[in-house]
Amino acid sequence: MRRLFISFALLFAVAFASAQEAVSTDSVAYLEALRMARETSENTSKSLEERKIARFKQFALEYLGTQTLKRDPKSDIGPLNEQALALYKFINAYEYQLTISNKKARQNVIETFKQVSLANPLFNDPNKEYVLAYITNEGYLTKFSLDTDWVAAYKEIERIYSAQ
Question: Considering the chain, what percentage of its residues have pLDDT values greater than 90?
Fold first, then answer.
């Protein structure tokens, strides 16, 4: 019995080491972004708004990963890294614009970011109820579609706000 246990432990260690090697440095951005979002969304010492924003990031990243694998199970993680970084930049830009805007301008900021998100679908997912859940839920400040090409959306936001 003890030998069996040791054999399983060694097998697990070898499998874990192989899995660690498979997760190359190329996948760090996506996986780290997902880890950070999960950690923040579950951290009760953070404000409710911070946790809600982190929950959106988590769901958006999980959606990206799931849809990418559905499309191409052998797909490279490079595009996911780009999307993850752009998602964080998009939301950081959103939070920044909200903090520098007066109360009247805040609604314009929210609407602009929402429209940019909607105008840049990545997968053209027909399940609108799911991908638009954050837009239709009044309890969230992140009024964005899960089905967003975050790279294109962030570029558009940069263009809009650099012109001001």
Answer: 77
Alpha helices by DSSP H, listed for the chain, are 2-22, 28-41, 48-71, 78-100, 103-119, 128-131, 133-136, 150-162
> What is the 3 state secondary structure string of 20-63?
HHHCCHHHHHHHHHHHHHHHHHCCCCCCHHHHHHHHHHHHHHHH
The CA distance from 29 to 14, in Å, is 25
In this predicted model, what pLDDT tens digit does every residue of 46-55 receive, in sequence order? Answer: 999 999 999 9
Q: What is the pTM of this model?
A: 0.82
Nearest to 93 by CA among 144, 139, 137, 58: 144
